DNA sequence: GCAAAGCAAGAGCACTGCTCTCGAATGCGT
DNA sequence: ACGCATTCGAGAGCAGTGCTCTTGCTTTGC
């Protein structure tokens, strides 16, 4: 793709960006439910129908926002786990967890968009999975790079789980023992689940604010992995 | 409340039930997003405006469905953990987990409604919390009734967490040690988080179908609690 | 038996996502 | 430098939404 482009192409790109930007603003202030194409167009001073030259549908706009959110969260985590070169694996694990929670609390609607109920009937095109994988891969990177202490043997892996884990390990972490990989996936779910619970009010009246419980959970999962 | 009621009251009650029933049908087939008051009214052969005599708003109808879903899930779990009188604590734990997943897979939209993104701006009136508590209390009941094996001391409880856990224990499980209670909450989050991941497609391409991973997680959490 | 309360229905408002059409601006090949 | 095809913005319009208000009718309680 050449750096030199026609005025039309540049205008198109810029407008596409502006639309996403305005949509994101509305998303952040009112949530995905309330995101309205007409309101976006209104705010941008254009006809609502003109918007369809840039996004074929509301869902397509949302999908673009989903990818952006995954990417942003993934980058935040990646940056956190690599920020301190001399940091121990446990410190990097902690940093990754904290960065994830911080991002989620700063962008609750974006978090809900990617880890909450899928908004349309269910549209996760291939394009999203790469962006979606960045957070778990960043966390997994910490585990892979760490000298793992031995951990108590857990329950035996039932049924097809060893095979599933082997397939997963094949492209994500070939050197990791299957139980460790399983615990890493568990930790990822625990991370997202806990943040979701906190954000969606399921801990109100018990462990809310969840700051300390979150920190404890980070340590507990690190322990379970042998970090 | 007397068993004898005016025809009007009986009609009102019956219609309220029918509205919820039809709403639930639409919820189950298309999700909360698509639930339309007008469509419900249409299906029931009445004017949409008449519906507002029974539910003040769409959100109120949804809240009613939320309470029903919490209750149903809670009852399913309660039944599961008490079904086999002679069962061991671990077996009852397993049964509670399985029942939760089974219900969620049979009622994915209902599950998303209660444990996904809050649909309105955020309306969790007091009425919902009692119903919402049934599932975690049912699972906690298994832990309380069990003779717990000693478990490795986990990370120290940071900051205000001991106090939060003490408050929680005060009305939910006074006899449980704080770390065990914390692990129980973690297990609850793990349960819901894992089901959410499975249902919302976050495990596609890795550990989906999640049946075996789910079973393994149930064992792992039971281990961590000393069940 | 009658006033009061509860009720259903219709019209209507302000929205929504989305489509189609039509003139204007733009880019490319000649 | 011109002409044509593509791209674009805007407007009108469709079908649908949640919700309100008014208008009559039915049931209830005194």
Features:
homodimer; mainly alpha; 11 helices; DNA-binding
Helix-strand makeup class of chain A: mainly alpha
The residue-averaged pLDDT of chain A reads: 94
User: Which spans of chain A have pLDDT < 50 for at least 5 consecutive residues?
Assistant: none
The percentage of residues in β strands of chain A lies in: under 5%
Quick synopsis:
The structure is a homodimer of 227-residue chains. By secondary structure, the first copy, chain A, is mainly α. Helices cover 68% and strands 0% of the residues of chain A.
Write a structural description.
- The structure is a homodimer of 227-residue chains.
- By secondary structure, chain A is mainly α.
- Chain A is 68% helix and 0% strand.
- Chain A contains eleven helices and no strands.
- In chain A, helix 5 packs across helix 6 and helix 10 packs antiparallel against helix 11.
- The radius of gyration of chain A is 20 Å and the shape is elongated.
- Chain A starts with 6 loop residues before the first helix and ends with a helix.
- Chains A and B meet through helix 6, helix 9, helix 10 and helix 11 of A and helix 5, helix 7, helix 8 and helix 9 of B.
- The first copy, chain A, binds a DNA duplex (30 and 30 nucleotides) through helix 1, helix 2 and helix 3.
């Amino acid at each position: 793709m050449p750096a030199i482009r026609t005025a039309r192409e540049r205008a198109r790109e810029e407008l596409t960006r502006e639309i996403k930007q305005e949509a994101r603003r509305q998303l952040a202030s009112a949530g995905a439910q309330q995101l309205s194409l007409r309101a976006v167009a209104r705010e941008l001073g254009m006809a609502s129908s003109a918007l369809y030259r840039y996004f074929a549908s509301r869902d397509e706009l949302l999908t673009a926002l989903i990818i952006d959110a995954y990417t942003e969260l993934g980058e935040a985590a990646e940056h956190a786990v690599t920020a301190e070169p001399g940091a121990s694996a446990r410190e990097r694990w902690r940093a990754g967890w904290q960065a994830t929670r911080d991002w989620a609390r700063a962008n609750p609607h974006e978090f809900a968009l990617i880890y909450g109920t899928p908004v349309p009937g269910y549209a996760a095109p291939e394009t999203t999975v790469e962006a979606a994988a960045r957070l778990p891969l960043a966390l997994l990177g910490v585990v892979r790079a760490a000298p793992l202490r031995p951990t108590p043997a857990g329950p035996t892996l039932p049924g097809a789980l060893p095979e599933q884990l082997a397939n997963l390990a094949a492209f994500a972490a070939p050197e990791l023992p299957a139980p460790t990989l399983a615990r890493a996936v568990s930790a990822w779910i625990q991370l997202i689940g806990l943040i979701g619970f906190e954000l969606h009010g399921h801990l109100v009246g018990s462990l809310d604010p969840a700051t300390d419980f979150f920190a404890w959970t980070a340590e507990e999962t690190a322990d379970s992995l042998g970090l």
